[in-house]
């Protein structure tokens, strides 16, 4: 009898231990599920997507002079995309150099600011389907072309821009002296070239074309003989590398907007009738 009682006691202890183990395992499983909440899950739950943009890059991202409303090609593409995804948009304005850090830290979900898709960036980040294609040109002084006849003359000239852009990379390639700016307005960039504080701005052709039209009295022009292949895959939104689900939803929506002509319509509104969704046919 005693042996039977002892055996039953041992069985009960083992059952209790097994139950405790299963409960603990379930608890770990639940905890694991909580930890696996994706960026897309959080965005859906909050009902909004947080997007970094400059707010100073005409016509991609700028404030209307009369209303101070944030608008521009990139801004309106994001707004329409978010609308189709059933989300609100929270724009956070910052310099380009801070956008990539903010993506990695989780401060923002996406950045949209005329950001070129390059192999170097794709190693660290994910990009949306491209929705803008262009090439690079150079703004110089109108009266003397800033002393630049060919790309060889760029060496030693003062190039304005943000340090981590593909355009500053081109300037460095040709030996220019960097003059870095932190989210400056187009007007400041252009006035500095006009006055001689800097000599050259290498940037997107469409942006430069409109910048000249906005400030016709300044002593600036697009250099007639300089065109640069940025060797990128177009412009897209940039996000964290592992946000695959978010990337999938953004890509699907962007492709819909390209297919139905919505992005072309937005492009023509902000780029003086030009359709930037088409690749330019140029020889460099």
Explain how this protein is built:
This protein has helices spanning 2-35, 39-46, 73-84, 96-105, 119-122, 166-173, 186-195, 205-214, 244-259, 262-270; strands spanning 48-53, 62-63, 70-71, 88-93, 110-111, 125-127, 136-141, 158-161, 177-180, 201-204, 220-228, 238-240. The termini are far apart. It folds into two domains: 40-132 and 235-270, Periplasmic binding protein-like II (D-Maltodextrin-Binding Protein, domain 2, 3-Layer(aba) Sandwich); 136-228, D-Maltodextrin-Binding Protein, domain 2, CATH 3.40.190.10. The chain is α/β, with parallel strands linked by helices and 284 residues long. Strands 4-1-5-12-6 form a five-stranded mixed beta sheet, sandwiched between helices. Strands 10-7-11 form a three-stranded antiparallel beta sheet. Strands 2-3 form a two-stranded antiparallel ribbon. The chain is 43% helix and 18% strand.
What's the gist of this structure?
It is found in: Cell envelope. This protein has 284 residues and is α/β, with parallel strands linked by helices. The protein has helices at residues 2-35, 39-46, 73-84, 96-105, 119-122, 166-173, 186-195, 205-214, 244-259, 262-270; strands spanning 48-53, 62-63, 70-71, 88-93, 110-111, 125-127, 136-141, 158-161, 177-180, 201-204, 220-228, 238-240.
Given the helix and strand composition, which structural class is it?
alpha/beta
CATH architecture of the largest domain: 3-Layer(aba) Sandwich
* Side-by-side strand order of the widest sheet: 4-1-5-12-6
Shape: globular
SSE series:
HHEEEHEHEHEEEHEHEHEEHH
The quaternary organization reads as single chain
Number of strands: 12
Q: What would the average pLDDT be, to the nearest integer?
A: 89
How much of the sequence lies in strands comes to: 15-25%
Counted by DSSP, the helix tally is 10
Give the N-terminus to C-terminus distance in angstroms.
Answer: 98 Å
The CATH class name of the largest domain reads: Alpha Beta
Q: At the fourth CATH level, what is the homologous superfamily of the largest domain?
A: Periplasmic binding protein-like II
Helix content: 40-55%
Low-confidence stretches: 20-25
Instruction: Please name the CATH topology of the largest domain.
Output: D-Maltodextrin-Binding Protein, domain 2
What's the main sheet like?
5 strands, mixed
Q: Can you tell me the number of structural domains?
A: 2
How big is the Rg?
A: 26 Å
Protein name: Transporter substrate-binding domain-containing protein
Keywords: Lipoprotein, Palmitate, Signal
InterPro entries: SBP_3_CS, Solute-binding_3/MltF_N
GO cellular component, one term: cell envelope
């Amino acid at each position: 009898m005693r042996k039977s009682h002892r055996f039953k006691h041992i069985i009960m202890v083992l059952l209790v231990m097994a139950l405790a183990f299963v409960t603990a395992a379930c608890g770990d499983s639940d905890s694991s599920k909580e930890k696996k909440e994706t960026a897309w899950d959080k965005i859906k739950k909050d009902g909004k997507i947080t997007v970094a943009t400059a707010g100073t890059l005409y016509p991609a991202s700028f404030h209307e002079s009369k209303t101070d409303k944030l608008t521009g090609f990139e801004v309106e593409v994001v707004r329409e995309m978010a609308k189709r995804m059933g989300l609100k948009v929270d724009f956070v304005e910052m310099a380009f150099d801070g956008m990539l850090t903010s993506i990695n830290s989780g401060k923002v979900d996406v950045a949209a600011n005329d950001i070129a898709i390059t192999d170097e960036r794709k190693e660290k980040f994910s990009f949306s389907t491209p929705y803008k294609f262009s090439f690079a040109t150079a703004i110089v002084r109108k009266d003397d072309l800033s002393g630049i006849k060919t790309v060889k003359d760029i060496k030693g000239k003062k190039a304005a821009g943000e340090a981590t852009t593909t355009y500053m990379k081109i300037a460095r390639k040709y030996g220019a002296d960097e003059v870095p700016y932190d989210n400056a307005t187009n007007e400041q960039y252009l006035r500095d070239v006009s006055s001689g504080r800097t000599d050259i701005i290498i940037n997107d052709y469409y942006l430069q074309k409109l910048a000249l039209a906005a400030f016709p009295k300044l002593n600036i022009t697009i250099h007639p003989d300089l065109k640069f292949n940025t060797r990128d895959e177009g412009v897209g939104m940039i996000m964290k590398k592992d946000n695959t689900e978010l990337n999938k939803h953004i890509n699907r929506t962007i492709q819909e907007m390209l297919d139905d002509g919505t992005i072309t319509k937005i492009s023509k509104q902000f780029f003086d009738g030009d359709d930037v969704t088409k690749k330019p046919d140029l020889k460099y």
